[in-house]
Amino acid sequence: MDIDKIIKFIKDVVEEAKAKGVVIGLSGGIDSSTTAFLCVKALGKDRVLGIIMPERDTKKEDIEHAKKVAEMLEIKYIIADITDVLKAFGAGGYVPTKEFDKIADGNLKARVRMCILYYYANKYNYLVVGTANKSECYVGYGTKYGDLGCDFMPIAHLFKTEVRELAKKLGVPEEIINKKPSAGLWEGQTDEEELGISYDELDKILELYESGKGINEIVEELNISKEKVEHVFNLIEKNKHKREPPKKLEG
Questions:
Q1: What is the DSSP letter of 47?
Q2: How far apart are CA 243 and CA 78, in angstroms?
């Protein structure tokens, strides 16, 4: 991975858009932290705004990690609690009469956060920087018009395992690098449990998929169960719509 190439990419995108800087959602996780470090290297601390968007069930540890990154980088940050917005929507788990729905209510959190990021982007003539990695983009692990809603993605060409290595090089705190990845969409949620596979295994499969290998070839090469490889291929196909623009009638 070429850090200088990523930094140039960030600079070029912001310059081409004639934007004054970028706004980034800080979750306390490795992807947003790594992206924030890269943006500060590219643009300087005064042109990066961090938004921390917790809600009632957000882990205190994640909030503290997000604040730690902002303070390490000396960037301005805003804490925008979204609990009341979720209540206003009548989200399950936030009003007494409704049960929490992992898909509908989990995605609502991501979409509310996207709206907040664009509010500040519009306010200050900034761009919204996305924090998705290549592994998540491939299998569609993200919310359409939520965390996938952004103006550009500086680390979307890197697998999750590559992001870990980059984070170490950049000086992202070890406790952030080593904790279990989580989108924080519900209490106790972890990315790998929801994906049904570890990132280490996922990335090995995706690398071979990208090289054109089929299911049986990958099973043999990695000595991994066929069910796991088929699961990844199914995710790629099922969530293809997240990687494509909205369909429109031609003619």
A1: G
A2: 30
Q: CA 39, 40, 44: angle at the middle one, nearest 5? A: 125
Q: Is 251 exposed, middle or buried (0-12, 13-18, 19+ CB in 10 A)?
A: exposed
Instruction: Give the pLDDT of residue 82.
Output: 97
Tell me whether strands 126-128 and 76-79 are parallel, antiparallel or unpaired.
unpaired
Per-residue pLDDT, 176: 97
| SS3 (DSSP) at 210 | helix
Q: Do 64 and 27 contact (CB within 8 A), yes or no?
A: no
- Cα-Cα-Cα-Cα torsion 117, 123, 126, 130, nearest 10 degrees, comes to 10
Cβ distance 195 to 141 under 8 Å?
Answer: yes
d(C-alpha 15, C-alpha 5), whole Å = 15
DSSP state of 129: B
Element housing 22 (H / E): strand 21-25
CA-based nearest residue to 205, from 232, 243, 236, 223: 232
Residue 76 phi/psi, 5-degree rounding, is: -70, 145
Angle at 185 between CA 139 and CA 1, to 5 degrees: 45
For 186-212, how does the pLDDT look when each residue is reduced to its tens digit (9 = 90+)? Answer: 666 677 777 888 899 999 999 999 999
